[in-house]
Amino acid sequence: MRTPNPVARDYYGILGVSRDASDDEIKRAYRKLARQFHPDVNPDPEAQEKFKDINAAYEVLSDDRKRQIVDLGGDPLAPGGGGMGGPGGPGGAGPFVGFQDIMDAFFGGAAGGSRGPRPRTRPGADAILRLELDLNETAFGVEAPITVDTAVLCTTCSGAGTAAGTHLATCEACGGRGEVQSVQRTFLGQVVSARPCTVCQGFGTTIPHPCPTCAGDGRVRTRRSLTVKIPAGVEDGMRIRLAQQGEVGPGGGTAGDLYVEIHERPHDVYSRKGDDLHCRVTVPMTAAALGTRLTIKALDSEEVVDVKPGTQPGSTLRLRARGVPHLRGTGRGDLYVHLDVRTPTKLDADQERMLRDFAKTRGEEVAELTKQGGFFSRMRDAFNGHA
């Protein structure tokens, strides 16, 4: 059994998938990481290098032939092929060729086998945009204008990449095959190997006169204005998908998707838990004792609620269906009003006398802290053993 080449890159580790991951698992891992480290989302230079590694890993693992090379311990992107060349080193001269050439003999590169030119038109990447909204907007929905900086189709060449009146030219180095073949001697005998053409980069065609607007890429970066419809009931952190509003691919390829990530601003009065709303209301001690009526301003209405006599601190009033509309289905969450009973901190002489008289009528003893023999004095006597 061949052991992995210690200098080969761990493409599975870069995408965070196991070596037996399916094609769908590899694709999902790539899309997730690409959205996280795309230069438009994360301008950190380290993130840009990470994005390059992610693309390289996906290029290798999404290609069955290149993935077989990795599984056998090679690196298909290393100089000279699999990164396991002979005495001359990768790409160097010598009686033996690199690991890539040997793999060509087994997987289609020998005897004139051809992979063909790779397409210039490729799918674009997804993009992500952060959108801040108020509670009322997330609760009831809104059509929000957004500005997106992405690659779009070059209107000068319509994605062809060529200047007006010119066309792609067949590569003279490879004859349009996108690869060049060579015959070399290995320990297995004579091997016909194929490598991507370095003149046309494997496309099989060249652009003698690139489009002056996009420099042959078929796309340009620009700022666009869109309107995204936010449904009622969305929560903080949710994403709205706009199909094919992301990056246009090279050569005018199909655009990726744009994901609008919702961020809900804190509200001055209400806090949100799911579809329920919570707020705190302070009521005077006398109002809590005697009962009162409060007018609560909900998100889209005013509600009158009764505070029953004898309401205790920390009591909660529930207003059904006055919260946030459910995102999926009908109905709304509830509004919870948490009551804080406020005790007066300063009393004048008359107010204090009336409270003491009230306490006496209820048979409640109120200790006078300023007088000798008050509550604390009696506590002290109790600890000292006095009756």
Automatic annotation (TrEMBL):
Cofactor, free-text remark: Binds 2 Zn(2+) ions per monomer.
Keyword Zinc: yes
Residues holding Zn(2+) 1: 154, 157, 211, 214
Residues covered by the CR-type domain: 141-223
Keyword annotations of the record: Chaperone, Cytoplasm, DNA replication, Metal-binding, Repeat, Stress response, Zinc, Zinc-finger
Cofactor requirement: Zn(2+)
Domain of life: Bacteria
Zinc finger (CR-type): 141-223
GO molecular function: ATP binding; heat shock protein binding; unfolded protein binding; zinc ion binding
CDD domains linked to this entry: DnaJ, DnaJ_C, DnaJ_zf
Protein residues bound to Zn(2+) 2: 171, 174, 197, 200
Any Pfam family hit: DnaJ_CXXCXGXG
A Gene Ontology biological process term: DNA replication
GO cellular component, one term: cytoplasm
Location within or outside the cell: Cytoplasm
Family from the record: Belongs to the DnaJ family.
Biological role: Participates actively in the response to hyperosmotic and heat shock by preventing the aggregation of stress-denatured proteins and by disaggregating proteins, also in an autonomous, DnaK-independent fashion. Unfolded proteins bind initially to DnaJ; upon interaction with the DnaJ-bound protein, DnaK hydrolyzes its bound ATP, resulting in the formation of a stable complex. GrpE releases ADP from DnaK; ATP binding to DnaK triggers the release of the substrate protein, thus completing the reaction cycle.
Note on domains (UniProt): The J domain is necessary and sufficient to stimulate DnaK ATPase activity. Zinc center 1 plays an important role in the autonomous, DnaK-independent chaperone activity of DnaJ. Zinc center 2 is essential for interaction with DnaK and for DnaJ activity.
The protein's name in its UniProt record: Chaperone protein DnaJ
Source species taxonomy: Bacteria, Bacillati, Actinomycetota, Actinomycetes, Micromonosporales
